[in-house]
């Protein structure tokens, strides 16, 4: 069996030293290294060129999205490329990942996308970094979607039309959904893949990221919410129920009778239920996160009514 030709597409914006570490982890493992920059002003473009990467600078007059950046990088790959490793610029690729992933793909011809374990590099730096690390820890086996870091066959990726560039977030699950509908499989290996540096140290960063997730849930449900996929319908409904509908109903009812405030006890009851499954820390932020998620979902529908994208939600993970 011939060795597949592997290239890499890295995307980033003002990643600084994290980008250098990312590019260094790929050098010698791939044929061509493409870096797509989304308006950095920290010297990332020059640094990437010095490390031998082919640099694509996105037009700053157009809204930045991770999907747009990835498509720009994919467009630079030649037709002789078999596999492409997609990586976010704040990640370091494990030295054994590509060989393990390639072997699995060669043994499983129905698989178009493969990913592994992404870990936070500094999970103890903050509760928010720790929550990210838990988010990345998903079961191995056949999956519905990958994340931003994944090894993909280029041909089916192009046949599917690439990433949907207008998505602010959630572009990987949306792409994987289309690949699965075309008959391909997505797999997650029980193997180390990348180290991610979220650098999420403040509550405001977590709030913005969670609100962005709510936006993505609502957009995904609008695009692919019909059966059988029901893509992100449940996530959107949970966010709107716990983060918006219940608080509003209780507040409105309390104007009639103060006894309505007793209904607020549903929240500690829900917290207790969640804690048994995921622990107290994760449960608290899961329930608290329903408010920014609901706001993000409403944000999407409001701007959909207006006929435009918000375009201001930071797309970095």
From TrEMBL:
InterPro entries: Glyco_trans_2-like, Nucleotide-diphossugar_trans
Record's keyword terms, sorted: Membrane, Transferase, Transmembrane, Transmembrane helix
GO molecular function per UniProt: transferase activity
Superkingdom in the source lineage: Bacteria
Protein name listed in UniProt: Glycosyltransferase
Pfam families given in the database record: Glycos_transf_2 (PF00535)
Domain Glycosyltransferase 2-like residues, every copy: 9-122
Membrane-spanning residues: 240-267
């Amino acid at each position: 069996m011939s060795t597949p030709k592997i290239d890499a597409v890295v995307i980033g914006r003002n990643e600084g030293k994290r980008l250098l570490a990312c590019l260094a982890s790929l050098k010698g493992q791939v044929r061509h290294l493409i870096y797509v920059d989304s308006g950095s002003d920290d010297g990332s473009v020059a640094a990437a060129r010095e490390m031998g990467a082919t640099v694509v600078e996105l037009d700053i007059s157009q809204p930045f999205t991770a999907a747009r950046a990835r498509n720009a990088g994919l467009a630079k790959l030649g037709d002789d490329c078999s596999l492409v490793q997609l990586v976010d610029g704040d990640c370091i690729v494990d030295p054994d990942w590509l060989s393990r992933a390639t072997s699995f793909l060669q043994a499983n011809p129905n698989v178009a996308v493969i990913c592994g374990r992404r870990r936070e590099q500094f999970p103890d730096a903050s509760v928010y970094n720790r929550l990210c690390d838990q988010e990345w820890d998903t079961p191995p086996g056949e999956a519905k979607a990958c994340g931003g870091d994944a090894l993909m066959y280029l041909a089916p990726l192009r046949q599917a039309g690439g990433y949907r560039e207008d998505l602010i977030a959630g572009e990987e699950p949306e792409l994987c959904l289309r690949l699965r509908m075309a008959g391909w499989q997505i797999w997650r290996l029980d193997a180390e893949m990348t180290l991610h540096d979220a650098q999420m140290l403040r509550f405001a960063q977590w709030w913005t990221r969670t609100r962005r997730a709510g936006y993505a849930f609502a957009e995904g449900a609008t695009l692919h919410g019909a059966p059988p996929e029901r893509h992100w319908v449940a996530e959107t409904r949970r966010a709107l129920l716990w983060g918006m509908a219940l608080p509003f109903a209780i507040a409105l009812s309390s104007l009639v009778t103060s006894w309505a405030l007793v209904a607020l006890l549903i929240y500690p009851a829900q917290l207790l239920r969640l804690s048994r499954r995921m622990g107290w820390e994760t449960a608290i932020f899961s329930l608290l996160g329903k408010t920014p998620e609901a706001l993000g979902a409403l944000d999407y529908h409001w701007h959909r009514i207006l006929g435009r994208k918000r375009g201001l939600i930071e797309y970095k993970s």
